[in-house]
Every structure is written in C-alpha cells, then in structure tokens.
Amino acid sequence: MARLPESGMVEKRGAGLWLTHLGLIAGVLVIVFPIWLAFVASTVSQPEIVRPPMPLWPGDQFFENYSKALVSGINAPVARMLFNSAVMAFGIAIGKIVISILSAFAIVYFRFPGRNLFFWLIFLTLMLPVEVRIVPTYEVAANFGMLNSYSGLIFPLIASATATFLFRQFFMTVPDELAEAARVDGARPMRFFWDILLPMSRTNIAALFVILFIYGWNQYLWPLLITTDPSMNTIVMGIKQMFPSGDDIADWPVIMATSILAMLPPVVVVISMQKLFIRGLVDSEK
Amino acid sequence: MATIRIDNVKKRFGQTEVIHGVDIDINDGEFIVIVGPSGCGKSTLLRMVAGLETVTSGEVQIHGKRVNELEPMDRNIAMVFQNYALYPHMSVFDNMAYGLKIAGTAKAEIAERVDKAAQMLQLGDYLDRKPRQLSGGQRQRVAMGRAIVRKPAVFLFDEPLSNLDAKLRVQMRLEIKALQRDLGITSLYVTHDQVEAMTLADRMVVMNAGVAEQIGAPMDVYQDPRTMFVGGFIGSPPMNFLQLRQASDDSMRLPPQIADRIEKAEGPVTVGVRPEHLSLDANGEARFSGRLRYVEPLGAETLVHLVTEGGEQITVRQDGIAQLPEAGSQCVMSSAAEHICLFGKDGARID
Amino acid sequence: MEKRVIFKGWLLPLLLLTPQVVVTAVFFFWPAGQAVWQSLFIPDPFGLKSQFVGLGNFEFLLRDPFYRASFVTTAVFSLLVTAVSMGVALYLAVLADRLIKGAGTYRTLLIWPYAVAPAVAGVLWLFMFNTRVGVVSWYLGLLGYDWNHVLNGGEAMGLVVVASAWGRISYNFLFFLAGLQAIPRSVIEAAAIDGAHFWTRFRTIVFPLLSPVTFFLLVVNIVYAFFETFGVIHTITSGGPQQSTTILVYKVYADGFVGQDLGSSAAQSVILLIVVGILTVIQFKFIERRVHY
C-alpha cells in the first residue's frame, strides 16, 4: 500500500490534515467504545455496575472476575467453553480446507464423467448458510446421534463451497506448464499435488485458515441448537446462556469477562495476521 | 540417443483439425527446428511428441517404438518450456533434481549429476537460490539444466528463448547450439523466430496452417523455397513478390527461358526475388522498374524501398556505401535469371 | 476458463471429491430436500403422523399477517444495517484514503470488530443500552429521554440495527479503502487541475469509479443482514417486543424450535432458500463480470 509521497499532493496540508485525523479518531473511538466498556465492566464489581452510571475506567477486580469466569462460570466453566470453541473453530477450518483443496484439485486438474454435475452440486451450496435449512439439518444431525458432540458441531458447517471456490480460482492461476513439467519429470497426480501444488498454496491456505477460524469461532445458532449439555457449549453461544431467565440481575462482570475472552482469540488472529487476513478476505470475495 | 519418426500425424480439437498430417523423420543426434507463425500448430506438434497432447491419428515413434499411448515420463524425453515452468518454491538444486528423485535415483548420483549440469551451465553458485532470485537468463539455464540431468534420449524445446531480451537471446542461442553439439542428443526445437531457426537447425521444418511446407537444411530452404509462404517467412527482409499480369509488362522484363515457364503455367503467376539478389542497375537478365520511395541506411547495408507502377512494394538490399538516386526518381533494378522464383496460384513453386 | 487437459483417469478425481460430496449431500442436499418435503405436510399435534397439504403451508404463510410483517421487518432491518454500516465505512475510508501516512494504522484500529461474533456484539450493545445498568441509556435518561427497547419496538429495531452494523463496518471499510486506493491518483489530480473541489471530485469521479465495490458490498451486506444477524437479534431482543424485530431467519428458528410448527418452519426455509438463490445469482453474475473486466 506504499504510495509515493508526491503522488498524494492534491491537498491535505495543515488544518485539513488535522481535520482528517480528527474525523478518523472520532470514528475509531465510536467503534472501540463498546469493547472498552465491556473491558471496564469486566474489571469492576457487580455493585459498581448496578448503580449507574458505571465507571469508565478499569477497576481492580480483573483477576477475581476472570478467574471466576474461567474456573466456575455460570452454567459451565468458561475455560471448558473456550476449549469447545477452539475444537470447533480448528475443526471447521482444517476440515473445510482439506475437503475443499482435494475437490478443487479434482475439478481443475481432471476431466471425468459427471465433473460438471459435481461442480454445480458443490457450487449450489455457495452462500447458502446453515441458518436457512436449520430444522432439517438439526434432524439429520440428531439422527446421526451428533447432538452434544464435536462432530455435530463441525461437520454440518463444513458443507459449503466458498473454500472450494477460492482454491479453484487459485489453481486456475497456476501456469499449466508447471503441471506439464511435473508430468515430464515423471510425477503422478498425487505426487504433483503434494510436491508442487500444496507448497505453492501455502499463503492461500493460511489466509483461508484465518477466515475460516473466525467463521467457526463465531458460530452461534448451530451450537445453540446442537449442544444442550452446558459442558459442550461454545463460548459465543454460552454467553447468552449466562443471562438469568427471570427478573434477576445478570452477573455483568463475569458476563463481560466472558465476552472479552470470547472475542480475544479471533481478534488476536485478525490483528497478528492482518496482511494474510485482508488478502484472504479480498480474494475470497472477488 | 534416439531417432524420432512423425508419421502422418493429425490433431483435431473438437471439430477443427489443426494439424493436417505431418511427416518428419529425425536422425539420431539431429537438431531439428520447427518454425512458423503463431497458430501454425508447431507447439501442438511438439506437445504431441512430448505426450502432453493426444495424437488424433498417425503415429509418433521414438527410437523405432510407437509412443502414442505412453505417458510423457515413459518416453525418455525432457522438455524446456517457454516460461521455464520452474517450481517456484524449490531451490535451483531441487528443481533440477526433481525428476531424478521421482525416478528413485540414489542421492549421491543425483548430487553428482546436478553438480555436473550446473557446472556446464555456470549455475554452480546459485544452487541454493529460488527461481525468483534469478535473472531471466539464469532461469533459462535452470530449465536447461533440469532437462540435461535426466540424460534423456530427446530434448524438446518450446520457444525457450522468447521471454529473453534480444541480447541474451543471441547469447543463449549460441549456448544451446554448443550444448546440443557436445551432448549429441536428438533435439526438436519450436520457434517463431526464423533467425533462431536458421542458426540452430541441422534441418528445419517450416510450418504453416497445420502443414509442414518444407523440410530441409536452413540454407537449402532459404535458397530454394518450395512455396511462396516459405520464401516470405524465411529471410529478412522477406522475398519480394510481384503479381504478373502479362508475360512482360512495362515494369518487368523477364528473359525468354522464364517467360516460357510462365506461358506454360496455368493461372496467374507470382514472381519472387530476394532483396539481396536485386541491384539498382540493368546488368541482370531480369529487369524491373519502379519509383524510389525511401531509403533505410542500416550501416553495413542499405535497404531501398521502391514501388512499381502497379503499386507493388519492392525492397532492394545494397551495400552501405552505394551511391543512391534521390527519392521520387524512377529506377531500374535487375537480378540474375537463376535467382528468380516463380509461384503458381496455389503458392507452390513452378520449376 | 478451463485448464488444458492435464491428468488422465476418473477414479482418482472421484475419490478426491468424495469427502466434499458426502458432506454436502448429507448436510446440505438431504436437509434441503427434507425442508421441501416437510413444507408440504402438517404434522398432527402429537407428532405421530403428518397430513399432506400440498402448498397449504405456503398459502397459509403468505396470508399470515405475522409472516408478512416479518418480511417487512426483514426488509427494513436489512436496508438500515446496510445503509448504516456502508455509510460509516465509506466516510472512514474516504478520510483514511486522504492520508499519505497512517492509513495503515487506522486500518489496524478499525478492522478488529470484524472478528467479534454477532452474538457477542449483541451482548456488548445490550449492556450499553440495558434499561437498568446501561451507561448510554442512563445518560439518555439524564437528557430526559426514557430509553426502553424492551417495550418500544422502534428503539429495539434501532438497537439491533446499530449492533449489527457496528461489526460490519470493518469489513466494508476494508473493501472501500482498497477500492479507493485502486483509483489512479492521476485521474484525481487531473480533476483537481480542472478545478474540481473535493466534494465535486468525490461525486463526479471517485464515487462512480467506486461503484463496482459499492454494488458488491450492497449485495453482501444484505445477505449478511438476512442471515448472519441471528445472534444479534437472539441476544438483544429475542425478536420482540411484539415481534417488531423478528426477521425471517429468526422466525424459522422460533416457529421450528420454539413453536414446534415444523411444516410452517420448513415452508419458511424453502422461501428463504429461494431468496438466497436469487441473491446468489445476482452476486454470481456480478462476480463473473468483475473477473472478466
């Protein structure tokens, strides 16, 4: 994104520059405020919150709130839910990458009967979220005995073609001559896949992994349906379960600590792998 | 070491036939260049020999054995691609060694063969680098190295120099020629560049629209083009072609032995003569006249461009120091009778 | 666009496809087929057997005022979420694009809400506007405004819109910024030399050049608002008050799982499938065009 200094000389000097910064900072503050408030709430005590207005600066209950959340939680220890979320997110990311890189390889590098049919069957699923076919999918999972299981959390969400589509796009840009050179060198298809195609796809795989990890981590409706046992809850859906059903006052510090913990892994992934993430996002949507 | 035999080979993509039956016999150790304009089917022919395209009909033999049904890896060939097709994530060493590794060659032998090839190609210092860290010429050498280490029976080159700049192209051309001569491996080389074809080939195949128009040693092809296409494609500047309306019109005076041949021919005849066989005087038996349009001095030689009364272009190649008439003046050109080629209406040579 | 034929054989590619085909068949086509099948039946109250009703479920749905209201709610909700998130994102992207240095820093500061799950975003905003403890609602109270999204449908809608749009700003910002940075400087400089001021330049040159990105985001955001905002709605309002925030996806869930009206829920699923199908076609056409520029 580096741009030569002189190429942006149309304007913005002096006051204009400061106004631009001011506008952006205001925007950042508005965007960040909800998260800041959640963080503050996770470091103060319940009485401080229930007597509004709550403080806007962190308190001293950080360890109390977080350890309470992690160890005991409300329905289930948050540590347990974090683990469940991690299994689900990794399972979805890895599972999707594996099945879609294989099928993209088959579709791009082979001609076989029914290729077009399979191609369209897979691509029909593009953009059709699980939310739409929720009831029957639930029944299928229930029939397989997948309720309250990791496979139930993972497999139904692997059935989507976005990753296949992305790999297909990428394979199309790999020069034909590379596969031909490998053929002349004596590589059979799977050898070519392992030795050439897979190493060349490293960045794409990593970028896709970031996107899919976040997708899996942030799932809500599906885990809500499929996990009735609190010990199988994922953290994102578990937060809602922490609210009391009646008129009781929610344990806000613990809930907010859980919220912070729930957003931490994907936020860390996004920020630390920003370049890959942006690439993956822009590529996958193009 | 191998011979190659291409026997009435045809290729169809769907309904369209792109190669209409080509026959080439290649001797052991021979360097054959297939030359032609883009789209003439030369690359397709090469890829059929490589096994990257199926042969629609006819037969390809390598060392007397039919290979139509064999996979590329089983044909004992190596190929150099136009864009080199180096594996981007592998080092130079691994690129060259990949084929041997797959073949299960012992590690020590791989190292020895790669080192030897690298030495030959002056790549010794670059074995650990990735392709993207190399210059165009070096990448080209790696691609050559990858072919050499396999010790194949046949080298196939698909426009290997066309991604290089002009200077490097000349240099690599010499290197390829020297290397092929040293190794003595039968080679089939495809290019659209007639200079490459002239300089590299033991024999060349001039292809046009899916047909091998002429096969022969470069100088034979040059001096004795069998079709109008060959005359126009080989040689720079190309052969001059003049449509003949009558046996002898005002702008063209041909000696009787040529006029006789024209009389006997059916349909319109085209007269071909190379620029260097024309001179701006009336000393030859075949004379032409035209108006001088402009002059291009190139140093060692000068190209004189004229236009006949009928509006046809003629180029004359002169020595660089020759005295020349002014632009716009009427000139007489002539050539010895034996340099005049006649072509019939189908473009074939009339003897 | 096709590769040259490269590897032979049909068994290996079929094996390679098997995992995806199996997963897709079991968890996509079978459920989708079931949805279509179930949408033609009404189960008896005890769930013991079903009665075939043809398109009865659909007829009933289309005459059901609640379902129609849900359509309107979804349309209003989607348009508002799209407008708010795209508007704010475009504003920020235009500002960031004006900077020679520092655009990257702001990008880092602005992208991470993307990683926050809609459900978590819902909890965060619920906390701020909570009628008892919310900071914002408390300050609004000081100003004499009695915020109560639990009772007031309009306020509930406002809250779910803001919470849904909030997490989406990052995504839109990234695309707008990339789009803006792809516009050649020389075009803008030429306009500046022609005497066009910032706003004129934006209106006549930048925005038209940005239109492919804008259109793409429009479709993607509508899809997002349709389907992926379930978490926001469920955590903040649970569709209330009086169904004022019951969008279509929420209604599928509420009727199917809470209300146990499987036939109606399946029919709703089918209608949603059709809606997504249309949106997918629109987007596909658009993607194709983009690829072929």
UniProtKB/TrEMBL annotation, chain B:
User: Keyword set for this entry?
Assistant: ATP-binding, Cell inner membrane, Cell membrane, Membrane, Nucleotide-binding, Sugar transport, Translocase, Transport
GO cellular component annotations of the record: ATP-binding cassette (ABC) transporter complex, substrate-binding subunit-containing
Chief localization: membrane
An example Gene Ontology molecular-function term? ABC-type transporter activity
| Presence of keyword Transport | yes
Q: Where in the cell is it found?
A: Cell inner membrane
Q: Name one GO biological process term.
A: glycerol-3-phosphate transmembrane transport
Coiled-coil region(s): none
Q: Which residues does UniProt assign to the signal peptide?
A: none
**Transmembrane segments annotated in the record for this chain:** none
**PROSITE patterns found in the cross-reference section:** ABC_TRANSPORTER_1, ABC_TRANSPORTER_2
| Keyword Cell inner membrane applies | yes
Task: Output the PANTHER family linked to this UniProt entry.
Answer: MALTODEXTRIN IMPORT ATP-BINDING PROTEIN MSMX, SN-GLYCEROL-3-PHOSPHATE IMPORT ATP-BINDING PROTEIN UGPC
- Return the protein name: sn-glycerol-3-phosphate ABC transporter ATP-binding protein UgpC
Organism this protein belongs to:
Oricola cellulosilytica
Taxonomy, top ranks, is: Bacteria, Pseudomonadati, Pseudomonadota, Alphaproteobacteria, Hyphomicrobiales
Automatic annotation (TrEMBL), chain C:
Similarity remark: Belongs to the binding-protein-dependent transport system permease family.
Subcellular compartments:
Cell inner membrane; Cell membrane
Q: What does this protein do?
A: Part of the ABC transporter complex UgpBAEC involved in sn-glycerol-3-phosphate (G3P) import. Probably responsible for the translocation of the substrate across the membrane.
Q: What NCBIfam families does its record include?
A: PRK10561.1
Q: Which UniProt keywords apply?
A: Cell inner membrane, Cell membrane, Membrane, Transmembrane, Transmembrane helix, Transport
Biological process terms from the Gene Ontology for this record are:
transmembrane transport
Q: Which domain of life is it from?
A: Bacteria
Its record classes its membrane topology as: Multi-pass membrane protein
Q: Which residues form the ABC transmembrane type-1 domain?
A: 71-283
Q: How does it assemble?
A: The complex is composed of two ATP-binding proteins (UgpC), two transmembrane proteins (UgpA and UgpE) and a solute-binding protein (UgpB).
The record, for SUPFAM superfamilies, names: MetI-like
* Gene Ontology CC: plasma membrane
Pfam families, per the entry = BPD_transp_1
Gene3D superfamilies according to UniProt: MetI-like
Q: What is this protein called?
A: sn-glycerol-3-phosphate transport system permease protein UgpA
Membrane-spanning residues: 12-30, 71-96, 108-128, 156-183, 204-227, 266-287
Species for this entry: Oricola cellulosilytica
Query: Which PANTHER family does the entry mention?
Result: BLL4140 PROTEIN, SN-GLYCEROL-3-PHOSPHATE TRANSPORT SYSTEM PERMEASE PROTEIN UGPA
